[in-house]
Amino acid sequence: MSTSRAAARLSRVAGHIHITSPIQNQTRRMSAVTNGRPQRRHKVAIIGSGNWGSAIAKILAENTTANSDLFEPEVRMWVFEEDYQLPSDHAAYDPSRHSHPTKLSALINELHENVKYLPGIPLPPNIVADPSILSAVKDASLLIFNVPHQFVSKICDQIDGKILPYARAISCIKGVDVSPAGISLFSDVIGRKLSIYCGALSGANIANEVAQEKFCETTIAYDPPGTLTPVPEEFPVVNHALWKALFHRPYFHVSMIHDVAGTSLGGALKNVIAIGAGFMDGMGWGDNAKAAIMRIGILEMRKFGLMFFDTCRSETFTEQSCGVADLITSCAGGRNHRCAKLSVEQGRPIEEIEREVLNGQKLQGTLTAKEVYEFLSARGKAEEFPLMTAVHRILIGEEKVEDIPKLLHSGGGLLPSPK
Amino acid sequence: MSTSRAAARLSRVAGHIHITSPIQNQTRRMSAVTNGRPQRRHKVAIIGSGNWGSAIAKILAENTTANSDLFEPEVRMWVFEEDYQLPSDHAAYDPSRHSHPTKLSALINELHENVKYLPGIPLPPNIVADPSILSAVKDASLLIFNVPHQFVSKICDQIDGKILPYARAISCIKGVDVSPAGISLFSDVIGRKLSIYCGALSGANIANEVAQEKFCETTIAYDPPGTLTPVPEEFPVVNHALWKALFHRPYFHVSMIHDVAGTSLGGALKNVIAIGAGFMDGMGWGDNAKAAIMRIGILEMRKFGLMFFDTCRSETFTEQSCGVADLITSCAGGRNHRCAKLSVEQGRPIEEIEREVLNGQKLQGTLTAKEVYEFLSARGKAEEFPLMTAVHRILIGEEKVEDIPKLLHSGGGLLPSPK
């Protein structure tokens, strides 16, 4: 970005901070300012340093530098410590230091590269890898969560009471937890466990492509209640403009919305639809059959959101990156789509394909299809979601792929009135 | 379809005819009925017998048979007459009759196959090919237009005054006519020239796949004004349920809406977006960049519709087959996408690729991009459609593909409030 454009953007962002909008009322108050600027800057920490965590850390660090009136430049990144042997063909390999396994956090800080999880991508030097989670989150007013979902709960237990009471958070963890008992959003788990507010980021994003600065978009949902511990007045107000200043890059376009549940749901439900799309390709029914499944999938995802979450908005699914765009990507080449396609083509159970193709990893879509079906069945609603129900029933052998058009046709009410 | 399901569907359709809904008020009146049924049935004619025309004729003929309480079984299909030499390896080839070129209409009626334009697909015997357009449309109360768009005007001139004054029509002609002076819908041209009402059918449909009964969906828009010559009372009411009975098949799912302009616009504007999506693939930016372009494309298509047509509805673009699904298909493998991709990969003008790949046929998207740009520019609105404008300006060499993310970012108001 040219200096003048960056300056123009900064002034826009700074301008926003003093604009009242209805959605900012909850946290807004007059900033104590000196010469038109808040006296303190936000300190950013990211919890997680895998593939996606490192790509997001890179973005955060680029933006804390670019917006140094709003953020302290240093971004602390918590690293789950492990020993790592730097390959001898790495450009920075020095036999005097790297001939034996080294701490990953130390390597990241030395080489400014996450050599294990995001190799080949230079990280800004203002990312500081920290193997201590308590040290990483200390004094951070903005917390970004980007860890595998099974660790969320334990990590929150570790840092509960050790973070700033007025910290605000964004979860980059994909999907939701679905069980017959209910649906739980990772952002809600984080917020509840830490007694803070946590929004959500989700979109048509693949870590490596984002890290390579290939163009994509994402959605960030942030809609804090009015009952939080206030952010002290000397900080810039934490609102949509501030989060956009922290996440938006020329190659990573951010759209800010309020619907946290809808933003999170798409990342889970799209995997079920991608299996349905893979079935169409497996049948050789062509791009139009697949587009039909995707269209119906968007509408069923929306119906699910509107039925079970008061705060869900129709347009999160039909217009946002976390909805329609993420679904498009998943149906174009994701693993759920691929395994479903191969399963139909070869006439073999998807579990066999999964074992062969995924090398020990598990398909998200088959599990989510089962969980969603059980959740819906427990509420007598399975028939109102004919596509997601058909996908599950085909996966367990109770229906056939060739009957999908009939199953969709017989289903009830695919088109609810949007709110 | 099983007999019992067919019967159930018929009774649903018949039931609908006597239900008042707000949208039917304009044309609704009490039918003169005998034993609960209208005394006369609709006669269906299709004007056009190309690839898509023949596939639609097959659907019509299947449904007039299945719904013989509503429609006369015979479907007249106007054939632009030509001589055709049946290949000697055709299964029905008989040297005593086929050793020389034969009239195409006679061949269709003899073989129940459009051997030239839809070879290999058996057509129902109740399709009657008719080389006389006046004879084909005579006494038809339902007219289906499915001809290349450049012939619409001339054909209307030929049959003007020779059709039933109370006929109703549906245009299956894809797209719209865009010029700096304005946008004209083919359905409007037909309606105006013939002094009847004409709706529109558009969706993610490829003629050959529909003919092979591969599953897909379509959208039919029908919203007649209250000022038409009334359909006589002894006919079944021409409403959404009737059109659905005529077009919906187990493999061809129909969604009925009211937004004729939106239904038609998608089929034209999607070609511009498909070029943008092809640019992304050409850059090797991955599925997420492409999904971002498609998402923005849906929103720009919608914005275009809402800005220039009072009757357009947001959901036609975000939810219907004629909108989001047709766009998905076009960006997956259509010719606009393919040529744009090759153009970027090979660093050569798209016109060169077009000549090589399309064998003399013209790309729709480059022409539409130019027409849309000129239309928008004439109204000072080009900047409000940054993606469509960028596509055109890249095509004419005024911008670069790699600047698309920047061009999108700088554009004004991508997200209008839907109506």
From TrEMBL, chains A, B:
<dbReference type="InterPro" id="IPR036291">
    <property type="entry name" value="NAD(P)-bd_dom_sf"/>
</dbReference>
<dbReference type="InterPro" id="IPR013328">
    <property type="entry name" value="6PGD_dom2"/>
</dbReference>
<dbReference type="Pfam" id="PF01210">
    <property type="entry name" value="NAD_Gly3P_dh_N"/>
</dbReference>
<feature type="domain" description="Glycerol-3-phosphate dehydrogenase NAD-dependent C-terminal">
    <location>
        <begin position="259"/>
        <end position="404"/>
    </location>
</feature>
<comment type="similarity">
    <text>Belongs to the NAD-dependent glycerol-3-phosphate dehydrogenase family.</text>
</comment>
<protein>
    <recommendedName>
        <fullName>Glycerol-3-phosphate dehydrogenase [NAD(+)]</fullName>
        <ecNumber>1.1.1.8</ecNumber>
    </recommendedName>
</protein>
<dbReference type="Pfam" id="PF07479">
    <property type="entry name" value="NAD_Gly3P_dh_C"/>
</dbReference>
<dbReference type="GO" id="GO:0046168">
    <property type="term" value="P:glycerol-3-phosphate catabolic process"/>
</dbReference>
<dbReference type="GO" id="GO:0005829">
    <property type="term" value="C:cytosol"/>
</dbReference>
<feature type="domain" description="Glycerol-3-phosphate dehydrogenase NAD-dependent N-terminal">
    <location>
        <begin position="43"/>
        <end position="223"/>
    </location>
</feature>
<dbReference type="GO" id="GO:0005975">
    <property type="term" value="P:carbohydrate metabolic process"/>
</dbReference>
<dbReference type="GO" id="GO:0005634">
    <property type="term" value="C:nucleus"/>
</dbReference>
<dbReference type="InterPro" id="IPR006168">
    <property type="entry name" value="G3P_DH_NAD-dep"/>
</dbReference>
<dbReference type="InterPro" id="IPR017751">
    <property type="entry name" value="G3P_DH_NAD-dep_euk"/>
</dbReference>
<keyword id="KW-0520">NAD</keyword>
<dbReference type="InterPro" id="IPR008927">
    <property type="entry name" value="6-PGluconate_DH-like_C_sf"/>
</dbReference>
<dbReference type="GO" id="GO:0051287">
    <property type="term" value="F:NAD binding"/>
</dbReference>
<dbReference type="InterPro" id="IPR011128">
    <property type="entry name" value="G3P_DH_NAD-dep_N"/>
</dbReference>
<dbReference type="InterPro" id="IPR006109">
    <property type="entry name" value="G3P_DH_NAD-dep_C"/>
</dbReference>
<dbReference type="GO" id="GO:0042803">
    <property type="term" value="F:protein homodimerization activity"/>
</dbReference>
<keyword id="KW-0560">Oxidoreductase</keyword>
<dbReference type="GO" id="GO:0141152">
    <property type="term" value="F:glycerol-3-phosphate dehydrogenase (NAD+) activity"/>
</dbReference>
